[in-house]
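Standup notes
- DV: blocked on the single-chain target, sequence here:
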Amino acid sequence: MRIEKETGIAACYGQAAMLPLWAAMTALTGILLLGGVAALAIGSYFFWPPRPAQEEVFYHFQCPACGRKLRFRARRAGKQGICPRCRKRCTYPKSSASAQAQPGGS
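- DV (later): unblocked, structure below
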């Protein structure tokens, strides 16, 4: 029986070290590329300026049943709603003369 002595990298690290250099470079390039894409996505999410909120016009009117002052969005004018105090159904006025306009959420 003859025993041969291995020399070189394979002797120190085993057969796993025999991975070709081009395969290791391809894997490293892929990892770096994915990391760069992830960094750009995260950076654009945190540093992209958000759009300012659009101000909506609110109207105020009094509930015909209980007299409570109610607030509603201008886009809801002419539609039905419910008074939170008396729970009666009422129709929001269409004209701004019967409802007081107020911009924003105040």
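- Follow-up: Residues 21-47 form the longest helix (27 residues).
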